[in-house]
Amino acid sequence: MPMFTTHPCQAFLDHWSACRTAGCRVAARSRLDPVDMPRLLPQMIVYDVGDTAEDVAFRLVGTGITRRWGFDPTGRACARVLGGEDGRDFAAAILRAARDSAGLRMVRRHERASGAVDEIEVCALPVWHEVRGVAQVMSVSAPVRLDRRHTDAANDPIRRRAPVAQSFFSLDPKPDAAALA
Predict the structure, then answer these.
(1) For residue 181, what pLDDT is reported?
(2) Other C-beta atoms within 10 Å of 173: how many?
(3) Digit-coded pLDDT (tens) for 56-70
(4) Which one of 31, 49, 119, 148 has the fewest CB atoms closer than 10 angstroms to its CB?
(5) Is the Cβ–Cβ distance between 27 and 12 less than 8 Å?
(6) Residue 12: which residues within 8 A CB-CB, separation 6 or more?
(7) Following DSSP, what letter does each residue of 27-58 receive, concatenated?
């Protein structure tokens, strides 16, 4: 599995890995205890996925994300919120992470009205929601580089989002040592 540049993304991958049951590719959502990751919650998004990229929706969006974006997209379709080809591609990547039980690392560029440019790292991982019986994706994001020119996301909105890097990685579990004995 890849190493992430930002501490929050690496911490989320480590926590997710520790919470999954031995031999499973996906962690159960109920095992990801918010008490164990309080510093990550403001930077977390939970996505509902359906059959197509157009069905990917923001189920829950952390307060750090809403502050950085300048609005709360909870309950809205991901592709529509992000807009254009990038929105469709982003939603398709989230859907692929859920369908293929794959990890996803992205770096995204956010260009603001003021001309400020931020780069954000994202770690997206599939989870199984046992109660609802559906796959979801949870992500944590953190700035790789923040442009200091903007200070207020509501008055300096993101005008354009663009991918800088995107890669999927295998979540194949390591064999359980006890099972091999």
Answers:
(1) 40
(2) 14
(3) 999 999 999 998 888
(4) 148
(5) no
(6) 37, 40, 44, 123, 125, 138, 140
(7) EEGGGS-GGG-TTTGGGEEEEE--SSGGG-EE
Give every CB contact of residue 75 below 8 A, 6+ residues apart in sequence: 57, 58, 59
Phi (first) and psi of residue 70, to 5 degrees: 90, 5
In this model, does residue 180 exceed pLDDT 60? no
Dihedral sign for Cα 67, 13, 92, 52, please: negative
Across 27-56, average pLDDT: 91
Q: What is the pTM of this model?
A: 0.90
Any idea where the domains of the chain sit in the sequence?
Answer: 42-171
Strands (E), 32-131: 44-48, 57-61, 102-112, 117-129
DSSP label at 147? -
Residue 158 gets which letter from DSSP?
E
Q: What is the pLDDT of residues 19-30, one digit of tens each?
A: 998 888 899 998
| Pairing, β 117-129 against β 27-28 | parallel
Domain formed by 42-171, architecture: 2-Layer Sandwich (3.30)
Average pLDDT over residues 118-130: 94
The alpha carbon torsion through 47, 49, 52, 57 (nearest 10 deg) reads -40
